[in-house]
Amino acid sequence: MNVNDTEIASSILEQHDYEIVNDIDDANIVFLMTCAIRENAENKVWAKLYDLDKAKRMGQLRKYGLLGCMAERLKAKIVEQLPSIDVVAGPDSYRHLPKLLAINSLHGQSAINVLLSLDETYADIIPRNQSKHSAFVSITRGCNNMCSYCIVPFTRGRERSRSIDSILKEVENKIDSGVKEIILLGQNVNSYRDYSVHNLSNDEDKNQTLNELQSPLADGFQTLYRSKPGGAGFDQLLRQVAGLDPNVRIRFTSPHPKDFNDSVLRVIADHPNIAKGLHLPVQSGSNFVLERMRRGYTRDAYLQLVKRIRHYIPNCGLSSDFICGFCDETDDDHRQTVDIIQNVGYYIAYIFAYSMRDKTYAYHHLNDNVPQSIKIQRLIELNQVYRQLSTEMNRQLIGQRQLILVEGVSKKSPQQLYGRNEANQKVIIPKLSNVNYMIGDFLDVEIIDFTPVTLMARPIRRTSITEFYTSKQ
After folding, report:
1. CA–CA separation, 147 vs 272, rounded Å?
2. Which of 75, 178, 381, 429 is the most exposed place for a label (fewest CB within 10 A)?
3. Residue 126: exposure state from Cβ atoms within 10 A (0-12, 13-18, ≥19)
4. CB of 166 within 8 A of CB of 123?
């Protein structure tokens, strides 16, 4: 989301004759785009802000500002600690950046706008794309889930969706520019619903969507909020986006397990260009902890969803998020999380020690009583278990042919490139003179080696999504 927000803010500034530069040393104005979901990330931002403050006082920088979730969360506290800051703008205030800069220039004081919106989606803004082969397209903003540990509803506001028409227009624009991969974005991307749509394309879609309206959530999942009925859901959006070009890969992030109903799974299974790698954040394997997190599901409901996913999409690769040491988490709760990693098997896992954020339900009602040393021990163990299992899963991929999109030059060697497979795993490939390919191409590759988190492959040929899957039939 930070990348997409940066692209939106850059586009708005360019429309008002500001020039975006690639090197910070060439900039007169520097904005930091921020996230507030974890304390460690905020600490890094504070350090960078003090560096910018120093650069301004030394005459090396004209202006600097803070954008995004951290700006909304801290508001006036930032100005209190850094009176020299020029602009503070929350995630719904990027349209006002030119005005805020003008106010700051006129009055010489910090200009602030951190008001949250009920309807801002930036639907009419074409983001300034930073990649030639992959593009982010925001489809929802905000979140209604109110998980007890999460600050996102307070920094991003209530959930709202863009219209399908505006999304399709942006996706078509990206495809026309040569993009090979579209990544749909939202804090809770698969709860998307366009309430402006009433008439569906045919009777089959209409009947299917009406059934989903009666049971929009995955079996065994529930929410703290009541969904408004009607409109077109994520399944219909995904079907239309995937249908624009069968040779453009479609991904989406970040989803919630509750919104993977069978209709969504069928759409993913039916379209070869929708990546068969799903992010399925579980956070904990313990029912006790899940209830305290207010996640809206049990361990068994989650595992049943995994079974349904593998029924509809047999070769689907899964990734997940985990939080260690949440309020009142016991050793037994932790062992249940270890067990769910071993039970499911994830190619990619994002594991974090819990850090309490103010404004959240946990901050007001729960006790952050797991010692930091225990959190770190559990973090280390979960990482070890995940890496051991991912190593064995990657070993089983040796000799398998996979489709990757080449994304760039490897950091370790200029003689190597890297891409990503459908499960979003990084795949390292050598530069070969006998195979004609470049960054932005789809490649048919054979997996030849692995680490716990990376695959190595032999390039076979340039291909397309359609060609690759037709040849496998």
Report:
1. 33
2. 178
3. middle
4. yes
* Nearest by Cα to 455 from 348, 324, 303: 348
Q: Which of 301, 239, 298 is nearest to 268 (CA)?
A: 239
The answer to whether the Cα torsion of 306, 312, 314, 320 is positive or negative is: negative
Single-letter code of the amino acid located at 242: A
pLDDT, tens digit (0-9, with 9 covering 90-100), for 328-369: 999 999 999 999 999 999 999 999 999 999 899 999 999 999
Find out whether 64 and 56 touch, Cβ atoms under 8 Å.
Answer: yes
Q: CB-based contacts of 218: which residues, under 8 Å, 6+ apart?
A: 257, 258, 259, 260, 261, 262, 301, 305, 308
CA distance 365 to 349: 29
Please name the residue that has the structure tokens 């067990």. Answer: 339
**DSSP H or E run through 79:** helix 76-81
What angle in degrees, to the nearest 10, is found between the helix axes of 299-312 and 262-270? 30
What's the order of all strands across the beta sheet hosting 277-279? Answer: 277-279, 317-324, 348-353
Tell me the pTM: 0.87
pLDDT at position 210 over 50: no
Beta partners for 112?
A: 88
Q: List C-alpha distances in Å: 203 to 189, 199, 209, 263.
A: 26, 10, 10, 15
**Identity of residue 138:** S
Q: In what order do the strands lie in the sheet with 249-253?
A: 134-138, 181-185, 249-253
Count of CA atoms in the C-beta half-sphere (13 A) of 117: 17
Q: Concatenate the DSSP letters of all residues of 96-156 into one string.
A: GHHHHHHHHHHH-S-EEE----SS---TT-----S-SSEEEEE-EES-----TT--HHHHH
Q: What is Dmax (Cα atoms) for the chain?
A: 67
What structural domains does the chain harbor? 2-113 (3.40.50.12160), 134-395 (3.80.30.20), 401-472 (2.40.50.140)
The tokens for 464 are 């397309």
pLDDT of residue 198: 61
22 within 8 A of 128, measured Cβ to Cβ: no
Average pLDDT over residues 401-426: 94
pLDDT digits (tens, 9 = 90+) for 22-39: 899 899 999 999 887 777
Between CA 148 and CA 55 the distance in angstroms is 39
What pLDDT is stored for residue 394 in this prediction? 98
Residue type at 168? L
